[in-house]
Amino acid sequence: MLYFIGLGISEKGLSIEALEILRRVDTVFLELYTSIIPDFKLDWLENMLGRKIRVVDREDLEERGGEDILREAKVADVALLTPGDPFIATTHIVLRIEAERRNIKTRIIHSSSIITAAFSSCGLQVYKMGRIVTITIPEPKVGYRPITPYLVLKENLERGLHTLFLLEIRAESGEFLTIPKALELLEDMDRRVGEESIVDDNTLVVGLARVGTPNEYIAAGSLSELKDIEFGPPPYSLIIPGVLHPIEEEALTTLFDCKLEVIEGWRERVKSVLKNT
Amino acid sequence: MLYFIGLGISEKGLSIEALEILRRVDTVFLELYTSIIPDFKLDWLENMLGRKIRVVDREDLEERGGEDILREAKVADVALLTPGDPFIATTHIVLRIEAERRNIKTRIIHSSSIITAAFSSCGLQVYKMGRIVTITIPEPKVGYRPITPYLVLKENLERGLHTLFLLEIRAESGEFLTIPKALELLEDMDRRVGEESIVDDNTLVVGLARVGTPNEYIAAGSLSELKDIEFGPPPYSLIIPGVLHPIEEEALTTLFDCKLEVIEGWRERVKSVLKNT
């Protein structure tokens, strides 16, 4: 049996069921390269479980196809711990498919994920979430500057939907994209597309750092305001809202001191982008 | 201080951090009317925490505005437990806003949510999720049959995105919408709109019951195949996929024995719905 177990988005995000399983399986593997969990310490988890954990890296899972894990899961009960909710990082589904092909049973133990937590933590409704998109760290050598995040935002706004941007983080090398830098990239994409601007100084933005942890920091305001904020360490995400319900507007003003005039300005601009479909 | 704590989607879905907080706060409230957690028992939780829990209902929270909770949180540490990830049910944000207005600090302890778990449990990529929509229990007396779920599906498909349908459940009265009934309703909406059909016997559908629990049941196949399946007790959800990546197709065939010809047929139909935007 092979369990895929989510570590969640904060240090102690494992569920009670996950703990029970981790205490009884034969081997516990863990990967921490697909994301970063603030303050998470391997020592702490090993002490709590009273057992050793085997750390696997990208090479083990992607180049060697998780062969060690599969071989062990064929004859014993094995758990693989991953940040967030399992399979939100898309690399692990291949391992699950291969396990099932070899007649190894699999089960998923879910946990919190930034995808729902980003919305619930800032008072925006997840039912108005459009397509999610990642803003990647620029590769100056490649010379190719993708505009996908801008295009996804535009499509979502045309339907009045909120856009969640995940900011790339390379856990292995310690590189990450900051919120001000991501906002700059979005502005640059907007300029390059050259249509009527949707990302500029007056765009309403919610910036989220370390969601779900005791040191969570969230700010809501105009893009120019957010560019001057020091959000502290990663991980980060951004939301650019679509059509806001009055209660969502209240959440942004009450919980994060977002200025009403920024919201009102944005409300008018979203109206002009909305497509009557 | 007022903690909003997610119970997650399964019996033992509470996180380690949630447990620590629940053991030290002065009062614990719990609502179970916004969703159903299979096999969750209040007794079990009270025994594990070694304390009593106060159950609140819709009237307490929505008509009386959670006044009891707010008054207590003004002078003590209080936790409110809710199914899934807090605030995914949209009713509780009002309570958080009111708390902050009264200078009561709030914090959210996240947990698993059907929204990400539905995708990760069936091998579909959450990055291709379009707008989410709920299919509600029909109200024959009202005479109004909404077509919103169909319209959302169509918009998502035009962009190649997957659609997650949540099937309404009324925890208080025990009423719920089954998967076969929801599929019938979608077919009926499709017929009433009268455009080129997208929901009929050959539509590719993933049906999910009790996601994240030990008794999870997932089936993937044509709508006509899924209509004949007995999914067992609720909660339920459905996904109608958009453009599938080869690995997503492999997940559906390997993990759920989905027939390749159903996937291939659907692939062609999605192509014809795709809008070049």
Task: Give the SSE map.
2 copies of one chain form a homodimer.
Chain A: E1 2-6, H1 16-24, E2 27-30, H2 42-49, E3 54-55, H3 58-63, H4 67-75, E4 78-82, H5 93-101, E5 106-109, H6 114-122, E6 133-135, H7 148-158, E7 163-167, E8 169-170, E9 175-176, H8 179-193, E10 204-209, E11 217-222, H9 223-227, E12 236-240, H10 246-256, H11 260-273
Parallel strand pairs in A: 1-4, 1-5, 2-3, 2-4, 6-7
Antiparallel strand pairs in A: 7-12, 8-9, 10-11, 10-12
Describe this structure in words.
The structure is a homodimer of 277-residue chains. The first copy, chain A, has 277 residues and is an alpha/beta fold. The first copy, chain A, folds into two domains: 2-109, Cobalt-precorrin-4 Transmethylase, domain 1 (3-Layer(aba) Sandwich); 114-275, Tetrapyrrole methylase, C-terminal domain (Methyltransferase, Cobalt-precorrin-4 Transmethylase, Domain 2, 2-Layer Sandwich), CATH 3.30.950.10. The first copy, chain A, is built from eleven helices and twelve strands. Chain A has helices at 16-24, 42-49, 58-63, 67-75, 93-101, 114-122, 148-158, 179-193, 223-227, 246-256, 260-273, and strands at 2-6, 27-30, 54-55, 78-82, 106-109, 133-135, 163-167, 169-170, 175-176, 204-209, 217-222, 236-240. A five-stranded parallel beta sheet of chain A has the order 3-2-4-1-5, sandwiched between helices. In chain A, strands 6-7-12-10-11 form a five-stranded mixed beta sheet. In chain A, strands 8-9 form a two-stranded antiparallel ribbon. In chain A, β2, α2 (42-49) and β3 (54-55) form a beta-alpha-beta unit. Chain A is elongated, with a radius of gyration of 21 Å. The model of chain A has no long low-confidence stretch (mean pLDDT 95). At the A-B interface, α1, α5, β5, α6 and α10 of A face α1, α5, β5, α6 and α10 of B.
